[in-house]
Amino acid sequence: MFKGILIEKDEQGYRSSVQDINERVLPEGDVTISVAYSTLNYKDALAITGKGPVVRSFPMIPGIDLVGTVEQSDNDKFKVGDSVLLNGYGVGEVHCGGLAEKARLKSEWLIPLPKAFSPRQAMSIGTAGYTAMLCVIALEKNGITPESGEILVTGANGGVGSFAISILSKLGYTVIASTGRVDQAEYLKKLGATDVIDRAALTEKGRPLAKERWAAAIDSAGSHTLANICASLKYGGVVAACGLAQGMDLPATVMPFILRGVTLAGVDSVMRPTADRVEAWQRLADILDVAVFDDIANEIALDDAITTAEQLISGKVRGRVVVKISK
To answer: Among 250, 266, 282, which residue terminates a domain?
Structure first.
C-alpha cells in the first residue's frame, strides 16, 4: 500500500480523495519509481475536480509530472537509485501519474534528472517550464531574435507564462505580459516583463487584420486571444500556441498568414520525442537562475492538493504548485 490521490468514477459518482492505494492499481511498466515530488498543473486540477474530461481510465492517480528515484527496473537504461524525471505521455490521464508515493512507468518516457536541478527545482519547472522552453525554441527556430521586437506572453501569471517571461528576458528579449490579474504587475516585472497589459484587450472578437505590434508571442489561451494575436503580429511574426485556457476554438481568418506571412507554431509537450525533451531541459539548466524558483513556485503537501486544485480552477493560484510526496 502507498499514499496518493485516487480518482474514482462509478454509480456513486466522480470523486477524488487522498487514501492508501493498493499497488495492484498501478499499470504495467518496466520501471517503478519512489516519487519525491510532483506538481499541480491546470490539467491536474481539471482531473481532480472533474471540471474537464481529462481522465479516460478509472481508477486513476493524477499528476502529469513527477521526479523520483528508481526503485525497480527491468530496463538496462535505468538502474536502482537513479534520479529520473517525467513530463506528459498521458500520465495522469490514461496511465497512473505522479500524485502518489509510487509510480510504475515505461522507461522510454523517462529522462535522467538534470544535474543542475534538485528534485524540487525540477518540479518547480515541471511541464509548465518545459513547455515554455519548447515555445521559446519554436520562436528561435522560426527566426525570432531579441532584435525582432516585442514578444507577447499571455496567461502571464500561470506557470507557462511565468517561465516564458523569465526565459525570454534572460535571453535578452523585450517581453510584454498579458494577464487578467494586472494587480500582479510587480511580480511579472520582477520576472522580466517590460510592461503588463490587461488580457481584456485580447479576449473579445477583433478585426481580421489589426495594427502590427508583436514580433512574436507565446499563447496559452487560444480562442479570440490567439486570433487577435495573429491579427496583430508584425510581418513574418510567429506565435507559439500551447494552450486553450480561453477556449479550443480559433475564430480567425487567413489574412495574417497570406498578407503578413505569419507563422502559427503548435507546441505539444505531452508526446514530444526524447531528444527534444533532453534539449529543452538542458536549455533550462543553461538559462534559468535558481533564484527564480522562489518567485514562481509554492510548495504544498499531498494532503492539500485537492483543495488547491479547486483554487487553481478558480484562478486564485499564481505561478507553479510543487507537491511534496515523500516525507
So the answer is: 266
Q: For residue range 194-235, what is the model confidence (pLDDT) as tens digits?
A: 999 999 999 999 999 999 999 999 999 999 999 999 999 999
80 found inside a domain: yes
At 206, give phi and psi (nearest 5°). Answer: -120, -170
The residue type of 130 is Y
At 62 the pLDDT is 97
77 with 136, same domain?
Answer: no
Please tell me the predicted confidence (pLDDT) of residue 171: 98
Residue 308 belongs to some domain of the structure: yes
Residue 120 domain-assigned (yes or no): no
Quick one: cell of 159? 506557470
- Is-contact 321 298, C-beta < 8 A? yes
97 and 191 belong to one structural domain = no
Quick check: 269 and 263 in contact, CB under 8 A?
Answer: no
pLDDT band at 159 (very low <50, low <70, confident <90, very high): confident
229 vs 3: CA distance, rounded Å: 44
Length of the chain: 327
Query: What is the distance between the alpha carbons of residues 154 and 202, in angstroms, rounded to a whole number?
Result: 9
Burial of residue 136 (number of CB atoms within 10 Å: 0-12, 13-18, 19+): buried
**327 has pLDDT over 80:** no
CATH of the domain at 209: 3.40.50.720
Q: What is the pLDDT of residue 209?
A: 96
pTM of the predicted model as reported, rounded to 2 decimal places: 0.92
Task: Report the candidate in 8, 46, 2, 45 with the shortest Cα–Cα distance to residue 24.
Answer: 2
DSSP output for 247-297: BS-----SHHHHHS--EEEE---SS--HHHHHHHHHHHHHH--TTHHHHHE
Same domain, 96 and 162: no
Domain that holds residue 43: 2-113+292-324
Is 280 within the bounds of a domain? no
